Amino acid sequence: MNSLLRLASAVLMGALLAGPALADPSAGDLDFLVNQAKPAWLRQVEAKGAKLEPVVVAMSLQPDGKIEAARLAVDEKRYDRDPQFRIVADAAVRALLQASPLTAPAGHPEFFRNNPQITITFDPRSMR
From its phi and psi, is residue 105 left (phi > 0), alpha (psi between -120 and 50) or beta? Predict the structure, then answer.
């Protein structure tokens, strides 16, 4: 019985240390992150004369918001064959890296620790 009690205590302690179940980031949280890089993205794309279009970027983040890696998450074939899209995609990745470290959304100090992999969308329709 004593070993069963120790096992139950260890399981309970592990659950407490792990913290609450994590929910996916909200649309507002993702928009908050995009908005930190949006001005640089818009400047870079417009400076090259490219047409703004949606770009999806995947990021790996450190707990302090520093971006370890950022890359195009979809349309890799299009990236290879469409120079205009390549400008827009490269500008999104560059803008994110320039904005690093990102600031966590208000009220979520553990946001990056809880979400080390995030995919965001730069969508010009929601940025004007």
Answer: beta
Q: Which amino acid is at 1?
A: M
pLDDT above 90: percentage of residues in the chain: 76
Domains of the chain: 25-126 (3.30.1150.10)
Q: Model pTM?
A: 0.79
Q: In 25-34, which positions are buried (b, 16+ CB within 10 angstroms) versus exposed (e)?
A: beeebbbbbb
Q: Which residues pair with 72 in a beta bridge?
A: 57
Task: Name the residue type at position 36.
Answer: Q
Count CB atoms within 10 A of the CB of residue 19.
Answer: 10
- Give the CB-side neighbour count of residue 106, counting CA atoms within 13 A: 1
Judged by DSSP in three states, 16 sits in helix
Instruction: Report, as ranges of residue numbers, the positions in the chain whose pLDDT lies below 50.
Output: 1, 4-5, 7-21
Sign for the CA dihedral angle at 66, 69, 74, 77 comes to: positive
Structure tokens at 97: 């890296």
